[in-house]
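Could someone model AFP with this protein?
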Amino acid sequence: MTTTKRKSLSRYLIEEQRVHNNMPADLRLLIEIIARACKHISFSVSKGLLDDVLGNAGTDNVQGEAQKKLDVLTNELFLEANEWGGNLAAMASEEMEHIYEIPNRFPKGEYLLVYDPLDGSSNIDINVTVGTIFSVLKKPESSHNVSNQDFFQKGCQQVAAGYAIYGPQTQLVLTTGRGVHSFTLDTQLGSWIQTQEDMQIPETTAEFAINSSNYRYWEKPMQRYYDELIAGETGPLQKNYNMRWVAAMVAEVHRILNRGGIFMYPTDSRTPGRAGKLRLMYEANPMSMIVEQAGGAATDGITRILDIQPTSLHERVAVFMGSKQEVERVTSYHKEAQK
Ligand code: AFP
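Reply:
Sure, complex below.
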């Protein structure tokens, strides 16, 4: 099908609002603005050395990780693009220690936006896939001034979640609770065009993604599952598995949405008291909503991620997500070990 016969993101959103009654107008406008910000990030990322945007910024984020120039730039791009729209009360990001309240010079709305502006940023200097992840929450009706507490909502309360992936093509993958849909950026038109509808993750898989260099730090149930995966047809799982690791969650989840698989970032003992590496509110929650909407599953080894009550903005969580059968298997190993 040619681009002219396909649906634009704007038309998809208007139909969701009018025909399916699945979103109010202010949420539709907010998603349009987020999509525009992702388009802008895509162009910045693609410039690379031409615009001198590669390398470290010389600063650390709140988690003590060295920020890339593009981490800082894309965070600012996202803030500027979203602050004036009138649909948000506040934003929170991987790159900011505190929440960002919409300044009084702009009208304020009812939504909260949580995002990771550049996931997988260590890939950027080597020209490998990166992405932007976002989650939209409704501000609790009872609150007047926004506080951290307003953001501490379980993932199952998200009203929309999505990511943009900056790879050979730029794509926006979105859910507003009625399936998962993908839009490809037509760089000639400057428009997002729907290219996949109702994406589905196969229930079974023979592909996994994990950073196995951390094996010695993992807990016993994780080591057991990994040993079984690599034993292949000679082990208890009785089939051979393939492994992939892009080191950008966006890319792993995108692969899983397209052909199945399981993505894991388990708890490890490198930093005692820290549950895994990934952040609950702007990585695990939006990706879990997408994965579940596509028929997959997502747990922290014990609990469904979307049921976890957040207690801080930048808290971390262990992540097992993707094809249902494998997520259920590794979760059952963790539950057995807990008993
Ligand atoms: P960065 O955005 O700091 O590069 O981190 C990306 C990430 O949080 C996630 O997207 C990857 O799955 C994971 O880290 C990769 O971690 P390793 O460094 O262990 O490969």
